[in-house]
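pls design
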């Protein structure tokens, strides 16, 4: 396998190392913003934080980030195990904080945006409800589609692991930054555009024909957070509830992008994640406009990631040599 950023010159090696460091710092900055966005509004929105039951999450973060710091202090920051422990630790911490932001956002009091989102679909002659009703009426088991839908986060974790072990530091750090910044963006948008999802007015027969919880799994959490006098949020039980934009769509695009350099994997990964994007409609209860918004948000931050990583040096994003 050829590492596209290390086969031509020491100058390109240095450029890639600099790009990784810039993306690492940008990821850490995103975590600071997420922490601020979760902590500051909590007081006036009636949110209290509980650390009960958080020992396992804290231990995982301590092991990952502790190992990373130890290796970094020993001058081994670019080793493959150090790359994985640091990136995975940062992604896990940032993901938890952004999930907290999404839950705090549901306390904002903004009106639910479902009528607007449904109207946006109908403007283009689309109806997520009609599509899901049609799928539910086929009479086939939809459990495989349910599995595909829930593969997004494992794909992100597995991709970070494999890219790190393969020595693809630049792709791994880029994935980390884009995962964090797009998730945080989706959570912040939820302050102004909260929504239940397209199943809010689905027929009971449609819901009954789908796997348990499909499209409705978040309804209880949404109602509890919006109606409770004081919301108690536990670190170990954060369920970021985001309808608009679709973060599952973003994760699918991130995984495809992360593996596009590999000519053997790009098409299988693309096919699987196109199925993930489709599954967001019947399994995630998304509107069509959610998918479009997710894709546009990914595209916007993808361009920013180019600038963050490149800085003043020339690094060829997305033009990697294929596996040989």
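designed seq:
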């Amino acid at each position: 396998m050829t590492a596209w950023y290390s086969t031509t010159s020491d100058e390109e090696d240095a450029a890639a190392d600099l790009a990784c460091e810039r993306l690492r710092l940008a990821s850490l900055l995103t975590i600071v913003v997420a922490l601020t966005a979760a902590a500051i509004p909590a007081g006036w929105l009636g949110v209290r934080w509980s650390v009960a039951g958080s020992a396992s999450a804290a231990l995982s973060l301590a092991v990952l980030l502790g190992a990373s710091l130890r290796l970094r202090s020993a001058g081994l920051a670019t080793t493959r195990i150090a790359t994985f422990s640091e990136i995975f630790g940062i992604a896990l911490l940032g993901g938890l904080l952004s999930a907290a932001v999404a839950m705090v956002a549901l306390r904002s009091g903004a009106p639910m945006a479902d009528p607007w989102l449904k109207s946006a679909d109908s403007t283009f002659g689309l109806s997520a409800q009609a599509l899901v009703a049609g799928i539910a009426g086929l009479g086939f088991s939809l459990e495989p589609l349910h599995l595909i839908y829930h593969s997004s986060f494992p794909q992100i974790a597995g991709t970070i692991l494999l890219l790190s072990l393969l020595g693809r530091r630049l792709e791994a750090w880029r994935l980390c930054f884009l995962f964090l910044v797009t998730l945080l963006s989706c959570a912040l948008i939820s302050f102004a555009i909260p929504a239940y999802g397209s199943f809010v007015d689905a027929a009971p027969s449609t819901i009954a024909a789908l796997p348990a919880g499909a499209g409705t799994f978040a309804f209880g959490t949404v109602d509890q957070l919006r109606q409770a006098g004081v919301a108690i949020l536990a670190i170990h039980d954060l369920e970021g509830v985001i309808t608009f934009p679709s973060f599952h769509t973003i994760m699918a695009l991130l995984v495809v992008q992360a593996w596009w350099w590999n000519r053997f994997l790009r098409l299988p990964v693309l096919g699987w994640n196109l199925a993930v994007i489709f599954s967001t409609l019947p399994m995630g209860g998304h509107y069509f406009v959610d998918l479009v918004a997710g894709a546009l948000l990914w595209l916007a931050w993808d361009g920013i990631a180019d600038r963050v990583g490149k800085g003043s040096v020339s690094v060829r994003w997305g033009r990697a040599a294929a596996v040989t």
